[in-house]
Write a structure and sequence with these properties.
Blueprint lengths: L1 H4 L4 H12 L4 H13 L1 H22 L4 H10 L3 H10 L10 H13 L7 H7 L18 E6 L2 E4 L2 H4 L2 E10 L2 E10 L2 E8 L11 E5 L2 E8 L2 E8 L2 E7 L3 H8 L10
């Protein structure tokens, strides 16, 4: 199977990586899934990509047991196998001082790891309707709403940008608790999602922007502009019917220093 996967084009691998982490646009997903169903080498490559995404997510959120590190060192001599996997997972390559982290990820791919949500999953939750009324403004604040997840407070975007809160949704994304606050302006709606628990890995292929020491990643999910970042150790996502540039402005608003990220 290794010879077949080595013949895949860079575009094939990029699309498989996007399908595996949930960022492939919806209009291209059905066509690629049909190709995967018809070609064993694509099925093998997609399976490796998905296991690598799961393994990376687990490695990013959990300490690596000493027993696993020992097993990695004992089995790390198969360089040819490592090279083949590196070609299959272009967005997950590491180098230099991070070589040990690569080995741990590869070991997790081989041994299995628990699944979890992706940024694309969180963005899709924001497309669901609200289930509760809009939160009010936090008492005495001009920049915060009375809604938060583990200390991550949702911003009041009405005064500064005209986006009024219209509803809230408490739900789960692949077993992880999530809260969405919905905002509306001029008949357009956006959703601001905060996942409970530790931050998950960012999407592959996103456009990264650094503002005031925070890294924001911009991408499209099912044709909707989306921005994700880490706020107080949690994954935050904002998505909806406006431009990426406006979403970046809203995501990076600090409310005159009252909002912490």
């Amino acid at each position: 199977m290794g010879e077949m996967t080595s013949k895949l084009s860079a575009q094939d691998m990029a699309e498989l990586a996007a399908l595996a982490d949930g960022t492939l646009p919806a209009d291209r997903r059905a066509s690629l899934e049909a190709r995967v169903a018809a070609r064993p080498e694509l099925r093998d490559a997609l399976d490796r990509q998905r296991r690598a995404v799961v393994a990376t997510r687990a490695a990013a959120s959990e300490p690596v047991p000493a027993s696993l590190r020992t097993r990695v060192h004992r089995t790390g001599g198969d360089r040819a196998t490592g090279r083949r996997r590196a070609r299959l997972v272009p967005g997950l390559a590491f180098g230099g001082a991070l070589a040990a982290a690569t080995a741990i990820v590869l070991a997790l791919v081989l041994t299995g790891a628990p699944s979890g949500p992706t940024v694309a999953d969180a963005a899709r939750l924001a497309a669901s309707p609200p289930t509760g009324p809009a939160p009010g403004r936090l008492d005495g604040s001009k920049s915060k709403l009375a809604a938060q997840v583990d200390g991550v407070v949702f911003p009041d975007l009405a005064r500064a940008y005209g986006w009024k809160p219209i509803g809230v949704r408490s739900d789960e994304v692949d077993g992880r608790a999530a809260t969405v606050v919905y905002y509306e302006k001029g008949g357009k709606r956006i959703g601001y999602v905060v996942l409970a628990g530790s931050a998950i890995p960012g999407p592959s292929g996103a456009h990264a922007v650094n503002r005031q020491g925070v890294r924001y990643e911009a991408l499209d999910v099912d044709g909707r502009p989306t921005v994700t970042w880490e706020g107080l150790g949690h994954t935050c996502v904002i998505t909806g019917a406006t431009s990426r540039s406006e979403l970046l402005t809203l995501a990076s608003w600090h409310g005159g220093g009252t909002l912490r990220y």
